[in-house]
Amino acid sequence: MTKFFFVLCLSLVFSLNTATAQNYSTHQVKKGETIESIAKRYFVTPFDIFSLNPDAKKELKPNTILIIPISKALKPKVTTVRELKGFITHKTKRKETLYSLAKQYSVTEEDIKKHNTFLYANPLQKGDKLQVPIFKTTKVVEEVKPTKKYKVLPKEGKWRIAYKFGITIQELEALNPGLEETLQDGQEINVPNIEDDKKNEIDEKYSYYKVRPKQGFYSLKRELGLEQEELEALNPGLKESGLKKGMILKVPFSSKANGIIQVDADRINLVDSISDYKTKHIAVMLPFRLNRVNHDSISGTKQSIVDDPYLNASLDFYSGVLMAIDSLKKLGISLKVDVYDTKNQTSEISRIIDANNFETVNAVIGPLTPNNFEWAASKLRNFNVPVVSVIGSNLKLGENGFQSKPSDGLLKEKIVNYVKADTLSSNIVIISDSKHAQVANSLKQEFNHAKQVYSRKDEDGKEANYVLVDDIREVLKPGNNIVFLETKDEGFASNVTSILASLIQKENIEEKKERIDIVLVTTNFNAAFEGDEIKNPHLSKLQFTYASASKAYNENDNNVFVRAYEKAYNVTPNIGAVKGFDLTMDVVLRLVSSDDLYTSVNDAPLTEYVENKFGYQKKLLGGYYNNAVYLVKHQDLTIVEVKP
User: Fold this and answer.
1) Which DSSP string do the residues of 427-496 spell out, in sequence order?
2) What is the C-alpha to C-alpha distance for residues 251 and 235, in angstroms, rounded to an integer?
């Protein structure tokens, strides 16, 4: 027993020492005190106290010891006020000095001189009669509130403000109940009342990362490649506070993390930020290949469109561009638009650039195909003209290149992080065909305890693209199961999804059945999941979840663009038309709300339109990559966005 108490005491001393090292103090609760009154006393928020003392949410008993974080908030200013109440006559004795008299009567030497002016010219002598002032001293405490009002700056969102004032996004939201996701320019919100020199400034040379629930330094090292000491050096105060959910960390850009090491940026509506109404000059390069079109008859022209996939894709995209130009003009924006037919040839692109003056062009949209895009961007690099891609997710970018489609690696990272952040204890299963064994194995490295299931082989050892019910049943567990399905084969996808949907079961005590829930995910959403063999009810039942570069618009939303497009073309816009509209709107609105497309990357960290969103980040050596992706899932036979 003695040994037990000795160990307990050591543990208590260690914990108290740790609390002291981490800038914490303690408070013994008195009768009648509330969390709010205690928070006010120590200049912290109730959220701060609850985060360190979760039991206090249930009941706050007298004599309870609370751990209180030392606040950065301004402390009360205490000033001393003196009121002259009268005088004492003092006859100077031998060896007395002004210093000794001032000390004796708790006044200053200047106080004595001020009321005995002869002392300014003559030294103090024995027998001098002095009028010594008597003051009533009171201390005035200037009340300083732990929070203050702050006006949101243009294009400033939650994460920037949270980082600036050294709090988490959750703490900012706790200070402002009901705070909307998107903040408005000039909106007044509550923030910690701290000294200006203690605020954190956003350094645009760095990225910023939001800490996920239950994330530790080891997890951050795996994801960001940064040691704990490196993170603490970049983020003063991290060593004392430790990691907290929603905390914003400053990190260097890392190609290892494929550009995802940034916070979920705050969406900005650039229509509200238009500041430059000078004419903007853009160029659109697409492979119409009009030289191949049969112009002899309408039927011949229609057949050319059907037969030529490049012309088909170009016309879809360009129809969206035209709708965007019309919308931008209605906003009062003046545009000069040059449209070029690249014929899908690098030689034609070179001819176009050599034959025209691109020095006045503010941005180029296109060319369509990756190799033509890279060629055009390299040719225009000397003019410092930004070139924005239409498609292509793994482009080689120079300093002037903008990849508008998020990379495949980013999509994979998004869904993997989503599964990792799942707060419920889940059983992970990875199902794949042999062609996707490499992806399956990489997932196995991310989830060490995951179970793997491969497509069965036929008698000749060839891929049979199916699994049996028992293959899957034996790897599932009662409770929550998350299943990765990695394939591009529609038949295999149909086989697996139908089996998984059949294995979901509710708890039934009488029949001794345990609950089995299954969520289906994939790192690569492709045509295999959209084929005729796939049943949407199965996908909805499985809450099929994946990361996507775009999010299909909801036909019930009465979207202005969709209505206008249907009126103009008598057909609903497809994905290519919507991308043409979204991309053109984004490029031009960035140009009229910032100095140029390059500076808009920092001015507008995240924008969103009908189906696409854009959040560019520059690689250290190279161009700008769109890191904004959607996380969507099938729900009630519709596709909805998964909110963080």
Assistant:
1) EEEEEE-GGGHHHHHHHHHHSTT-EEEE--B-TTS-B-----HHHHHTT--SEEEEEEEE-S-HHHHHHH
2) 9
d(CA 302, CA 475): 53
What is the rounded CA–CA span in Å between residue 582 and residue 11? 59
Report which secondary-structure segment, H or E, holds 284. strand 280-286
The rounded distance, in Å, linking the Cα atoms of 94 and 72 is 53
Three-state SS for 54? helix
614: left (phi over 0), alpha (psi -120 to 50) or beta: beta
Query: Omega of the bond prior to 537 within 30 degrees of 0, cis?
Result: no
Q: What are the 10-residue block averages of pLDDT along the chain, 644 residues in total?
A: 37 36 65 82 73 77 75 62 90 92 92 93 92 87 74 82 84 85 85 80 76 80 83 85 83 51 63 89 94 68 76 93 94 95 95 95 95 96 95 91 94 91 79 95 93 92 92 93 96 96 84 86 95 93 95 80 92 94 97 93 89 89 90 91 80
Question: Rounded to an integer, what distance in angstroms lies between the CA atom of residue 247 and that of residue 385?
Answer: 37
Helix (H) or strand (E) holding 17: helix 2-21
Q: How far apart are CA 614 and CA 118, in angstroms?
A: 79
Residue 272 DSSP code: G
Burial 448-475 (b: 16+ CB within 10 A, else e): eebbbbbbeeeeeeeebbbbeeebbeeb
Residue 198 tokens read as: 């203690």
Strand runs labelled E in 125-275: 129-142, 147-151, 188-192, 207-210, 248-251
- Rounded Cα distance, 305 and 397, in Å: 31
What one-character DSSP code corresponds to residue 362? S
Residue reference for tokens 């969507």: 632
* Assigned token pair, 358: 């691109």
Element (H, E) at 27: strand 24-28
Answer for the pair 59, 70: CB distance below 8 angstroms, yes or no: no
C-alpha span between 263 and 168 (Å, rounded): 12
Query: What is the set of domains in the chain, with CATH numbers?
Result: 2-69 (3.10.350.10), 77-142 (3.10.350.10), 270-406+555-635 (3.40.50.2300), 409-548 (3.40.50)
Structure token pair of residue 299: 């039927």
CA distance 531 to 515: 30
Token look-up 């923030």 returns 191
Which ranges of 22-78 would DSSP assign to H, the alpha helix?
Answer: 35-42, 46-52
Return d(Cα 417, Cα 263) in angstroms, integer.
Answer: 13
Q: 180 is written with which tokens?
A: 């909307």
For β-strands 188-192 and 147-151, DSSP reports them as: antiparallel
DSSP 105-144: HT--HHHHHHTSGGGGTS---TT-EEEEEEEEEEEEEE--
